[in-house]
Write a structure and sequence with these properties.
Elements lengths: L1 H19 L6 E8 L12 E9 L2 E7 L10 E4 L4 E4 L1 E3 L7 H9 L2 E8 L18 E8 L15 H6 L5 H13 L2 E6 L5 H13 L3 E4 L6 H7 L3 E3 L1 H4 L6 H9 L5 H10 L6 H11 L4 E3 L2 H7 L33 H4 L5 H21 L2 E2 L14 H12 L4 H7 L2 H7 L15 E4 L13 E6 L2 E2 L2 H15 L1
Helix pairs in contact: 2-17, 4-5, 8-9, 10-13, 14-15
């Protein structure tokens, strides 16, 4: 009996001794309030004066301060009086250079989803291989016809619809499996996918645990929602579901050409009390489909609620030629507006109306995801996501709901089990801020510490490197 007791005590002592000394990458955040971002930001079970212990890049323990044993040698970040949230996720960004990667990390964006798309479509044509940076989740475009995901350059698409060979179910499944086997974790379903094809794509994507987003034309938005698509992207696209049947036909036959104009006009004139808007909101509220409006695109391009991006901190990391159609750094002129001088007021009025429509959809119960649209129209890596969160708050999301749109909602919508929440077993991605993001999501600008994969990011070094790169380029 005595010998068994000695053996038991020895085992306990061995376990304690192995835990008493930190491994090389152990980090502890001590004293901050953990902000609850679950249930789309409706949960409020915050944890004040907490300790988060990260071992080998993974959250190992979460508990009250003083109740978690911190091994000797652990890097301890004392964050008393501060607030800690999961590392931010940009659901629609770009990765064009190491400077992009550094800008994202500097701004607390620890995960970026980038869709690789053919030229002329939403997404990026290339993705840079960086030596360090945020977690990169790759997406790919899938077409109902062409193997590279491209769509026709000729307009309208009548010939495409009638004469080009559609992919069979087997071909679609084979393509999706090939993408999944090559580290693609999401699919952007293109305009030219038909309802029966969409069913196949969604079914196989679920089997392979891939995220799905869509900009349909040959398939209607209500059908895509009913089929179980993960997210609808770009409010200037998904709000075309409010157009008249006649104008929808024109849009479906030419969604990247002249068919867009009439559907857009319908949206700009949609009454906020219209039954069709209420029906769309009701369908979204009863579904598992989220909206990713990418409000920053129109806000920046049309100068609606987005300040000159060159005044943001992220501008230190990029130059105008790194971005698409950038805002003029000196004058703040917006190229898209400048190219339509006769329509400036109409464009801005419609952009504001689109925001109001999204506000109605949110009040109806639609779930939101945050994507910046970087680098379109000069939207900055990192800073663009902060702008998107402010815009989501502007349309009616509470600060906590906006925060959930860039963190926990990706867990619920896309099933990402490695990021998005502060839980044991998830990646050690955290942002510590000095101001309370429950009061205003702009508090996320007050970054004190960024932790990515269990490493405390040296933000001052990132900024200094960016400054050297800029001076070296002059």
């Amino acid at each position: 009996m005595r010998s068994l007791l000695l053996v038991a005590l020895w085992c306990v002592a061995l376990a304690l001794s192995s835990r008493a000394v930190a491994s090389e990458n152990d980090v502890a955040i001590v004293g901050a309030t953990i902000i609850d971002v679950q249930n789309a930001g409706r949960s409020t079970v915050d944890r004040p004066n907490a300790t988060i212990f990260i071992r080998n890049g993974v959250i190992a323990e979460v508990g009250d301060r003083g109740k978690i044993a911190i091994p000797r040698g652990t890097r301890v970040v004392v964050a008393s009086g501060s607030y800690v949230v999961p590392g931010l996720i940009d659901g629609y960004g770009g990765m064009r250079s190491q400077n992009f990667a550094d800008a994202y990390l500097y701004e607390g964006v620890t995960t970026v989803y980038v869709t690789r798309s053919p030229a002329g479509q939403d997404g990026e044509q290339s993705i840079a291989n960086t030596t360090s940076g945020p977690r990169l989740i790759r997406g790919a475009t899938i077409s109902g016809y062409l193997p590279d995901g491209a769509v026709p350059a000729t307009h309208p698409w009548t010939e495409h619809r009638l004469k080009d060979a559609r992919k069979s179910a087997d071909e679609l499944i084979s393509e999706i499996d090939h993408l999944a086997d090559n580290d693609v974790r999401g699919l952007q379903v293109s305009f030219d996918v038909w309802p029966d094809q969409l069913d196949v794509i969604i079914g196989e994507a679920r089997r392979r645990h891939l995220a799905t987003i869509v900009e349909p034309a040959f398939t209607s938005y209500p059908y895509a929602i009913r089929a179980g698509i993960g997210a609808l992207i770009r409010n200037d696209r998904y709000e075309t579901a409010l157009a008249t049947p006649q104008d929808l036909l024109a849009y479906e036959d030419d969604p990247m050409g002249r068919g867009v104009a009439s559907a857009y006009r319908d949206v700009c004139g949609t009454d906020l009390g219209s039954p069709i808007l209420a029906a769309l909101g009701g369908q979204l509220a009863q579904s598992h489909t989220a909206l990713m409006p990418i409000l920053s695109i129109e806000a920046t391009a049309d100068d609606v609620g987005a300040p000159n991006p060159w005044k943001s901190r992220s501008s230190a990391f990029v130059r105008p030629n790194d971005l698409d159609d950038p805002v003029d750094p000196k004058t703040g002129a917006r190229p898209y507006l400048e190219s339509h001088p006769d329509r400036r007021d109409a464009l801005r009025t419609c952009a504001i109306h689109r925001q109001d429509i999204d506000g109605n959809l949110h009040r109806a119960g639609a779930l939101y995801l945050a994507g910046s649209g970087t680098p379109a129209f000069g939207i900055m890596p990192g800073g663009g996501l902060h702008q998107e969160l402010r815009l989501l708050q502007h349309i009616g999301l509470t600060p906590r709901e906006a925060l959930a749109a860039a963190t926990s909602n990706f867990v619920d919508v896309f099933g990402w089990q490695d990021v998005g929440r502060i839980e044991v077993g998830r990646a050690g991605d955290l942002v510590v801020v000095g101001s309370d993001p429950r009061v205003d999501v702009s508090a996320l600008d007050d970054i004190r510490t960024v932790v990515h994969d269990g490493r405390v990011i040296n933000r001052k070094a990132l900024l200094a490197a960016a400054d050297r790169n800029h001076h070296g380029a002059k």
